[in-house]
Amino acid sequence: MAALAQRLKLSYSKYWYAYAMVAPVVIVLGVLVAYPLGRGIYLTLTDANSLNVGHTVGVNHIPDTFTFVGLHNYSDILFGPGSYDRFWSHFVWTIEWTVLCVTLTVGTGLGLALLLNQKLRGRTAYRMLLVVPWAVPTFVTVFSWRLMLADGGLVNTLLGSLHLPQPSWLEDPLAQKTAAILVNTWCGVPFMMLSLLGGLQSIPAELYEAAEMDGASAWQQFRHVTLPGLRSVSSTVVLLGVIWTFNQFAIIYLLFGMNAPDVQILVTWAYQLGFGQQPRDYAQSASYGIILLSILIVFTGFYQRWLKRNDQTAI
Amino acid sequence: MRRGIAASALVAALAVSLAACGSNGSGSSSASGPVTITYWDTSNATNEAPNYQAVVQKFEAANPTIKVNFVNVPFDQAQNKLQTAMSSKGAPDVFRSDVGWTAAFAKGGYLTPLDGTAALPNAGVFQPSLIKQAQYQGKTYGVPLVTDTLGLLYNKALFAKAGITAAPTTWDELKADAATVKDKTGVDGFEMRAGDGYYAMPLLFGEGSDMVDAANKKITVNSPEAVKAINTYQSLFTAPGTVKADITSDGYAHMMDAFNSGKVAAIINGPWEITNIYKGSAFTDHTNLGIAAVPAGSTGKAGAPTGGHNIAVYAGSDAAHQAAAEKFAAFMTSADSESFIAEKNSTLPTRSDAFTADVKSDPGIAGFQQILSSAQPRPALPEYASLFTSLGTNLAQVATGQKGVQAGLDATAQDYAKILPDFAKQ
Question: Phi and psi at residue A278, in whole multiples of 5°?
Answer without folding.
Answer: -120, 135
